[in-house]
Amino acid sequence: MKTAHDLVCQARARIREVELEAAPAMLIDADILIDVREADEYATGHIPGAINIPRGLLEFRLSSTPGLESRALSVVVYCKTSGRAALAAAAMADMGYLNVHSIAGGFDAWAAAGRPVVKPALPDFE
After folding, report:
1. What burial class does residue 93 get, using C-beta atoms within 10 Å of its C-beta: 0-12 exposed, 13-18 middle, 19+ buried?
2. Contacts 24+ apart (CB under 8 A), 89-94
3. Angle at CA 93, nearest 5°, toward 88 and 96?
4. Cys staple from 79: which of 16, 29, 63, 84, with CB 3.0 to 4.6 Å?
5. pTM of the model
6. Which residue in the list 79, 85, 86, 90 is annotated as catalytic?
7. pLDDT digits over 6-27, tens only?
């Protein structure tokens, strides 16, 4: 029986991961940056320009959103530490997307390196 770790390792073997140092340059050329974490994770902070499509909804959203249907899009995906992103990138490859990259280390590595993070502003009740 395979574990989640086994599935992530298999996915990583067939996707393209971009190292953290190269990620900012990759983002400049990307058509879309997708954060595959859950909505509550995204709300606590995310990479600037990212849209949130939780991993469990990814294939459905890609199939039903006209702007995301092109298999030629240059896509970068990330999650907390890169496991879900690897699975997402593999699923997108299975769907025929030709240019998908995952950020190695995910959001945690991005934030730890001091890269820009968007954090939602709390409403001012005064």
Report:
1. middle
2. 89/11, 89/15, 89/16, 90/10, 90/11, 90/14, 90/15, 91/58, 91/59, 92/58, 92/62, 93/14, 93/15
3. 130
4. 84
5. 0.93
6. 79
7. 999 999 999 999 999 999 999 9
Told to judge if 79 belongs to the known catalytic residues of this protein, a careful annotator would answer yes
Rg (the chain; Cα; Å):
15
List Cα–Cα distances, 28 to 32, 76, 109, in angstroms.
10, 10, 19
For 19, counting Cβ atoms within 10 Å of its Cβ (0-12 exposed, 13-18 middle, 19+ buried), the class is exposed
DSSP 55: G
